[in-house]
Amino acid sequence: MINKKEIEHIANLAKLELSEEEKEIFGRDLSFILEYFSLLDELDVSKIEPTFHSTEKFLIKEERMREDEVKNWSEEEKMKIKNNFVKKEGDYLKTRTIL
């Protein structure tokens, strides 16, 4: 079983405030889950081939993403794009931060 210190550490990482009763319940539940996953150690997977990983295709040069290329847009096309953008700053189009 997971000890109280480990439960408090996990709760802190998850930014959870747990009561003493919740810590006890959480500890029991998490211990049960981990014990259940330990059953996987008993399985014989020696005859099972590894599954394909989605990034493997990018290891082959022919399957990599296309190279970036510069396209020359007409002024009319550029204005259409700029006019459809909500936020602008000078000649730049602003987007939401994603990182």
How would you sum up this structure, described in words?
Strand 1 and strand 2 form a beta hairpin. The longest helix is centred in the N-terminal third of the chain and has 19 residues. The chain has a domain of 39 residues: Orthogonal Bundle (Histone, subunit A). It is flat and about 65 Å long. Helix content is 39%, strand content 4%. It has a two-stranded antiparallel sheet.
Corresponding CATH superfamily of the domain at 4-42: Glu-tRNAGln amidotransferase C subunit, N-terminal domain
- N-end to C-end Cα span: 38 Å
How would you sum up the global shape? flat
Rg calc? 26 Å
Largest sheet: 2 strands, antiparallel
CATH class of the domain at 4-42: Mainly Alpha
Helix/strand class? mainly alpha
Low-confidence stretches: none
Total count of strands: 2
CATH topology of the domain at 4-42: Histone, subunit A
Order of helices and strands: HHHEE
Helicity range of the residues? 25-40%
Number of helices: 3
Mean pLDDT: 85
Q: Record the strand order, biggest sheet.
A: 1-2
CATH architecture call of the domain at 4-42: Orthogonal Bundle
For the structure shown, list the relevant keywords.
two-stranded antiparallel sheet; 99 residues; Histone, subunit A; 3 helices; mainly alpha
Helix-strand blueprint:
Elements: H1 4-13, H2 20-38, H3 75-84, E1 88-89, E2 92-93
Antiparallel strand pairs: 1-2
Short description:
This protein is 39% helix and 4% strand.
